[in-house]
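Good morning,

Attaching, inline, the backbone tokens for the sequence recovery test we're adding to the shared suite. The designed sequence is right after.
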């Protein structure tokens, strides 16, 4: 699943350190709704990336579970927004995840999609090599989840950007001899995604430019 809602910009639209943000009240409600959705699931393992937003979400969704920290599954890293020319910022935000994203594309001027795969896929292999579990919950990030879903469908390093990942959404995948994608972007509080038609990155762009 993806962590619950956070705020990457303050009330004036100024960026805050993304590695430090905590869940908003909406994010807490989303995590609690995911907990209710998964109540009947027997979770043998609970993984999180180690960033506060995933650790908080995991603690709410699976209270009492020992959360394993997998830092290689942290979100794709952007550069400082001040390093992106102002006339390129909207394109960088809104089109960050569109279509089949080239491996050499940099997310907000930072880490490439290829570098994301370089750390996510070995982590997946390590998880799947352990036969001592049946059902695991991984509380991760929008970009990381897109990489995993894309790999599950294609079996290759192909990044399908149109997998929207709403805050607090749940994805369901089976893996044995092959991957089976059973559900994608299930938002327990808003199953029809009726509250907004903005993508996550479109929303972030609107928040960034709010006071500009």
């Amino acid at each position: 699943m993806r962590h619950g809602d956070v705020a990457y910009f303050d009330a004036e639209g100024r960026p805050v350190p993304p590695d430090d943000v905590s869940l908003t009240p909406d994010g807490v409600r989303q995590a609690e709704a995911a907990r209710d959705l998964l109540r009947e699931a027997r979770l043998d393992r609970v993984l999180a990336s180690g960033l506060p937003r995933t650790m908080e979400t995991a603690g709410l969704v699976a209270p009492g579970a020992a959360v394993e920290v997998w830092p290689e599954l942290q979100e794709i890293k952007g550069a400082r927004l001040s390093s992106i020319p102002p006339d390129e910022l909207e394109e960088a935000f809104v089109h960050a995840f569109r279509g089949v994203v080239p491996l050499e594309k940099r997310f907000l001027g930072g880490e490439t999609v290829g570098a994301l795969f370089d750390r996510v896929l070995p982590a997946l292999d390590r998880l799947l090599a352990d036969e001592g579990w049946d059902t695991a919950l991984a509380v991760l990030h929008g970009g990381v989840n897109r990489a995993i879903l894309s790999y599950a469908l294609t079996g290759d390093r192909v990044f399908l950007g149109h997998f929207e990942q709403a805050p607090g959404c749940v994805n369901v995948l089976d893996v044995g001899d092959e991957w089976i994608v059973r559900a994608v972007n299930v938002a327990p509080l808003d199953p029809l995604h009726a509250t907004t038609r903005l993508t996550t990155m479109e929303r972030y762009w609107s928040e960034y430019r709010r006071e500009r």
